[in-house]
Specification:
Elements: H1 2-30, H2 56-66, E1 69-74, E2 77-82, H3 85-94, H4 106-112, H5 122-139, H6 144-163, H7 171-186, H8 196-211, H9 215-222, H10 224-227, H11 233-257, H12 267-277, H13 288-319, H14 321-334, H15 350-363, E3 372-373, E4 378-380, E5 383-385, E6 390-393, H16 395-399, H17 442-459, E7 460-464, E8 475-476, E9 480-481, E10 487-491
Parallel strand pairs: 2-6
Antiparallel strand pairs: 1-2, 3-6, 4-5, 7-10, 8-9
């Protein structure tokens, strides 16, 4: 009897061992890398490098150990990371078509389902991007309309700041001001700074961007089917996006009620007209669903990154009051106090331009950019990267490349000034990324940064809340943003 039970026990354990070996071999075969594939940390079976962080500081440490082109595997999904100015430039600029696609990112695919501008690929992406660029330019009337819109919004923003009699957090004011510029282009109108419905939309978006960088969001990308049923921050993110989408659908519904195809007022009107024209070309993707997500793309990108950069700007100018004074001196000398700043002033304000660029470099708001996918078999740095491989470019490593910047860890506007004090461009300045997937809102963002910041510094001097210790460390979500802080404004 005992012998029989022992045999049963051994048979059971041998069966378990057999199943384990089978699964292990399946995992090894499935994740076998091709010859000359980028190296990386050892991958434990089944779960991969699940305990390896995805933050940019962890990636920088891995690059120091494994080189500027290396790979990390989470679950069964492998990502190749590219670091350093030389390698990043080769990947995005020299090999322009090699990394021009987007991978399927479960976290965002659940929201976008491959639609819109940022998450689509192929013919549909080309058509959507071309339309967005053409019509944003059209409604901006070759920059002049946009310039006037930003100048007008600067007046509203300065007035809101002026009304604050005690230390305050500038985030919602800045988000509203910046969002009003892209809102005027997409929806044809701006929103009041106290519009509760619109402020809710902005807050949902702020939260969603933070939540997208959470550990739950990372785990969702590894085990999407499992985490669909697990509560956590990722579920709140999905809920936030659902409410933002309802807001966009409502705006589109209002447009359809009084839409005149012969007189487009804004991006939505123009898109509705294009839908009629492209009925015979369904692959181009012009339909209501795509309109919703392309509007979400433009609205979110046109709000979050620029407003975050301006928050970094005010924080750095408070931390370095002597630099704030030098910018104000240049404003007083070139613009004075009796007229609004305009874009023509940029050419005569090299120090201000240098400070804005250095804020973007140090603010480093998109340290790992946005994931890409190899659109064809290619080689980089002597390594083979097969078509379809997910690729992430470390923009942080470019903005802090020790071989490109004299003092990479120090806030130094001199990085962008020549020996005569004139503004100089730097090849390693890539806050908007580069190549075919570079941020299409770069021209607008540059206009906003200059006009909003010069208007604010023309009117006010900024200082910290008494007793508050300001940190430049920042908080990491999907972007890198300043932690909440309060400031004081003194009219000049």
């Amino acid at each position: 009897m005992i012998f029989h039970n022992l045999l049963d026990y051994l048979d059971f354990n041998i069966g378990l061992i057999g199943i384990f070996v089978f699964l292990l071999l399946t995992d090894i075969i499935k994740n076998k890398k091709p010859r000359d594939f980028p190296p990386g940390p050892w991958r434990p079976p089944f779960v991969g490098n699940i305990f390896t962080g995805v933050d940019y500081k962890t990636i920088e440490k891995l690059a120091e150990k494994h080189g500027e082109v290396f790979s990390v595997t989470w679950g069964s999904e492998t990502t190749v990371f590219i670091s350093g100015h030389k390698m990043v430039k080769e990947a995005l600029v020299t090999k322009l078509d090699s990394f021009a696609e987007r991978p399927v990112i479960p976290l965002f695919d659940k929201v976008y389902k491959g639609r819109g501008v940022s998450m689509s690929n192929g013919y549909g992406w080309k058509m959507q991007r071309k339309f967005a660029i053409t019509h944003l330019r059209y409604f901006g009337e070759a920059k002049k309309n946009l310039e006037m819109s930003i100048q007008q919004e600067s007046v509203f923003l300065c007035e809101a700041f002026k009304q604050e009699r005690s230390p305050f957090n500038p985030q919602m004011y800045l988000n509203t001001a910046v969002s009003n510029i892209i809102s005027a282009l997409i929806f044809g109108h701006r929103f009041d700074y106290h519009d509760e419905r619109f402020l809710n939309v902005l807050q949902w978006d702020i939260d969603a961007v933070i939540l997208a960088g959470s550990s739950h969001a990372h785990l969702y990308n590894i085990f999407p089917r499992l985490f669909d049923y697990i509560p956590g921050p990722h579920q709140r993110m999905f809920n936030n996006y659902s409410k933002i989408i309802e807001f966009l659908k409502d705006e589109i519904r209002k447009h359809k009620e009084n839409w005149d195809p012969s007189d487009p007022r804004d991006y939505i009107d123009a898109y509705l007209t294009e839908m009629e024209k492209k009925k015979t070309d369904p692959e181009a993707g012009f339909n209501i669903e795509t309109l919703v997500f392309s509007s979400l793309d433009l609205f979110e990108a046109g709000t979050e990154t620029t407003s975050t950069t301006i928050r970094w700007a005010l924080l750095y100018l408070i931390k370095y009051p002597q630099i704030q004074k030098k910018v104000q001196a240049e404003i007083d000398r070139v613009i004075g106090q009796t007229r609004q700043p305009n874009l023509d002033d940029r050419a005569n304000m090299p120090y201000t331009e240098a400070v804005i660029h250095e804020i973007q470099r140090m603010g480093n708001i998109a340290p790992l950019g946005f994931p890409r996918r190899a659109s064809k078999d290619t080689t980089l740095g002597g390594y083979f990267i097969p078509k379809g491989t997910s690729v992430t470019v470390s923009l942080s490593s470019v903005l802090n490349d020790k071989s490109e910047w004299e003092t990479p860890d120090t806030f130094n506007p001199g990085h962008f000034l020549d020996d005569q004090g004139q503004f100089r461009k730097r090849d390693a300045f890539m806050p908007f990324s580069a190549g075919r997937r570079a941020c299409l809102g770069e021209p607008l963002a540059r206009m906003e940064l200059f006009l909003f910041l010069t208007a604010l510094l023309q009117r006010f001097t900024f200082s910290p809340e008494p007793g508050e210790e300001l940190s430049l460390e920042g908080q990491l979500g999907f972007t890198k943003a300043p932690g909440p802080y309060h400031l004081c404004v003194s009219p000049r």
